[in-house]
Design brief:
This protein is mainly beta. It has helices at 101-111, 145-161, 228-234; strands spanning 2-8, 17-19, 21-25, 28-29, 35-38, 57-60, 66-70, 73-78, 85-87, 95-98, 116-119, 140-144, 179-182, 194-197, 200-209, 236-237, 240-249, 253-256, 261-263. It has two domains: 2-12 and 19-24 and 129-263, M1 Pyruvate Kinase, Domain 3 (Beta Barrel); 35-119, no CATH class. The strands form four sheets. Strands 1, 2, 12, 13, 14, 15, 16, 17 and 19 form a nine-stranded mixed β-sheet that branches. Strands 5-11-10-9 form a four-stranded antiparallel β-sheet, with helices on one face. The two termini are 13 Å apart. This is MOSC domain-containing protein. GO terms for molecular function: catalytic activity; molybdenum ion binding; pyridoxal phosphate binding. Pfam families: MOSC, MOSC_N.
């Protein structure tokens, strides 16, 4: 087995960025989900209610800011966040730094509601434990191509049963993984308790339960019924549907595409 892809998400709920390598820190991959979009009450804006977030591309600048773009929106370069520290209402985070007013206005126009871009200045404030795997979608999320192909097969079989034409394979971006592994049997990761990727050891903390955000196509921002309809049929227990695993790093270092993956 090998590490086929690495992805980071500069903005939570924004587009992922493919990486050839990435540093592993106690709270996840370097540069992953350090920015978020919140409402005036400090609640993270959920992509399931505002799917246009899925269209946002964000590239980190050398100075520590962001370069934002989205269809129908002008490109905006955001300087490093140096505004007021504001309180958040998130279960995992207590406060963050407010980004430049231009960025807040940009997201307000994009979403059609008051919105603010914030920066997590100290990711060490995230609650990371080996038992829980952390909060705020962290620290690392892994899926396998074998499991994705099996899910695609199930979706196609279900479509035929309903007399429908099988849809195109799912874009793995629906699941927003950090790490994509190739060469594993479908859902072999369910039984993993630890994983070594390259020189980095991980504890498998929890399986990943899937929310309604996965039914939004990241390319079109259109809503459908998959994959939750099929996951509910084949991968439902304990009141949730499951796909992928969450992991906590046991040591730090660098991950590279092509690294060998050894589950335990």
């Amino acid at each position: 087995m090998e590490l086929a892809e690495i992805r980071t998400y500069p903005i939570k709920s924004g587009k992922g960025v493919p990486r050839l390598s990435a540093g592993v820190l106690p709270w996840g991959l370097e540069g992953d989900r350090r920015w978020g979009v919140v409402d005036p009450q400090g609640e993270l804006i959920w992509v399931g209610e505002h799917p246009r977030l899925l269209s946002v591309s964000a590239a980190e600048t050398p100075e520590g800011g962001l370069r934002l773009s989205a269809p129908g929106m002008g490109e905006l370069t955001v300087p490093p966040a140096a505004g007021d520290v504001i309180s958040l209402s998130c279960s995992a985070l207590d406060r963050a730094v407010l980004a430049h007013a231009d960025a807040c206005e940009w997201f307000t126009r994009l979403l059609g509601m008051p919105a603010r871009l914030v920066w997590l200045d100290d990711p060490g404030r995230r609650t990371i434990t080996e038992a829980t795997g952390g909060l705020w979608d962290g620290p690392l999320h892994l899926v396998s191509t074998g499991s994705l192909r099996r899910l695609d097969d199930w979706i196609a079989e279900g479509a035929v049963e309903r007399g429908e034409h099988p849809p195109d394979p799912l874009d793995v971006a629906r699941f927003r993984p950090n790490l994509i592994v190739d060469g594993a049997e479908p859902f072999a990761e369910d039984a993993w308790t630890s994983v070594r990727i390259g020189e980095i050891d991980f504890h498998v903390s929890v399986p990943c339960d899937r929310c309604a955000a996965t039914v939004w196509d990241p390319a079109t921002q259109e809503r459908g019924k998959e994959p939750l309809r099929t996951l509910a049929r084949h991968r439902r227990w304990d009141g949730n549907t499951w796909f992928g695993i969450r992991m906590v790093p046991r040591n730090l270092g660098e991950l590279r595409v092509g690294d060998e993956v050894k589950p335990g």
